Amino acid sequence: MTRTEYPWLLPSAMAGPELPGDRGRSRRTVRDWVVDLTAFLCAAGIGLATLATIEADPTTSDTFVLVDSLVGAAACCALWFRRRWPVGLAVALTLLSTVEPVAAGALLVALFSVAVHRPFRPVVLVGALALAVVPVQPYLRPDPNTSFLASTIIGLLLILLVLSWGMVVRSRRQLVVSLRERAVRAETEAALRAEQAQRLAREEIAREMHDVLAHRLTLLSVHAGALEFRPDAPPAEVARAAGVIRDSAHEALQDLREIIGVLRGPRDSDGNRPQPTLATLDALVAESREAGMKVTLDNRLADPGAVPAAPGRTVYRIAQEALTNARKHAPGTEVTVAVTGGPGQGITVEVRNPAPTEPFTPVPGSGQGLIGLTERATLAGGRLDHGPAPDGGFEVRAWLPWAS
């Protein structure tokens, strides 16, 4: 087994992602000032408690107390440099604590900083040094109230506790950074997928435009060329050719409008298959009911058959996709389909479903259907909005133009 075969065994993989504070900061934030001040006060509090114990010993001279006070104050003040030089400061305080018990609080804070801001290897080295010199300080300056063994054990436990706590904090921060990076990457990938879906939809439109308009434009070219070739043709023949040109141009314009309003791929282009319209919306709802769905249709259009083919087909596709999504993501709920509008004011279609109340196994989806519907409605001159409803359900609302 080699490390190249198992990349998670590499030191970079074991260390985890780098944290923002690992390389220090040129300027402290408000949070940094608060944390540094808290660390300084904790170290000073431990130092003052130790100094009080030293003063209580009648065998200790005032000179030793004064030196201990100055050295302890200097060690606490040195903690303000722990962000820039955490390892060097921890090593210096480790060596200082062997002869100066008042620096113990500053040492614990420095070791915690190393565990938080440095990877595993330097933490192990500094921690091993600190653990190795623990027995030196109680041997050189024993505490009259505590035995040598007890002082050594307490020192070992405190160092292990501080290092473990710091490594846990670092691991948690690395986890948060990793999750944040993963979320950003997922959002970027989703945006790329949406962009790709829109590009594919436009390519389908372009292919359909070529297939449908090529025949119409060819007729226009043929008849226009005939008029150019025979300018002296009889008036009846000229009128007949002009009529064909006019009809072909009108049909080409109608086809172009329908293609712009409908996103339909070549695999769906079956000329013998009747295209759905708003008049067939009842059949769609009946089919959904036969499949076991609870669907309520509120069609307030006086004459659905009078709706133009392009917007009617778009309304049908929107309702079809919304019912499919409700069947996949909210089974057992009652779906409401409402269609309102009229000539001059456009057509509005709303499909709503409440949040599911019974447990179910969700069906995975790519979300490309809603993207295609949005593109379809936009290219038809309308708009489409979708998203969670206030009651926890889901709502799809679209508006399409209907000329008077």
Automatic annotation (TrEMBL):
Look up the domain of life of the source.
Bacteria
Where in the numbering of this chain does the Histidine kinase/HSP90-like ATPase domain appear? 314-402
GO: which molecular function terms? kinase activity
* Positions of transmembrane segments: 33-52, 64-81, 88-114, 120-140, 147-168
Keyword Lipid biosynthesis part of the UniProt annotation? no
Q: Which InterPro entries does the record match to this protein?
A: DUF7134, HATPase_C_sf, HATPase_dom, Sensor_HK_TwoCompSys, Sig_transdc_His_kin_sub3_dim/P
Q: Which CDD domains does the record associate with it?
A: HATPase_UhpB-NarQ-NarX-like
- The chain positions of domain DUF7134 read 31-173
Enzymatic reactions: ATP + protein L-histidine = ADP + protein N-phospho-L-histidine
Boundaries of every Signal transduction histidine kinase subgroup 3 dimerisation and phosphoacceptor domain copy: 202-267
What are the EC numbers?
2.7.13.3
Q: Cite the entry's keywords alphabetically.
A: ATP-binding, Kinase, Membrane, Nucleotide-binding, Phosphoprotein, Transferase, Transmembrane, Transmembrane helix, Two-component regulatory system
Supply the name of the protein: histidine kinase
Taxonomic source organism: Streptomyces drozdowiczii
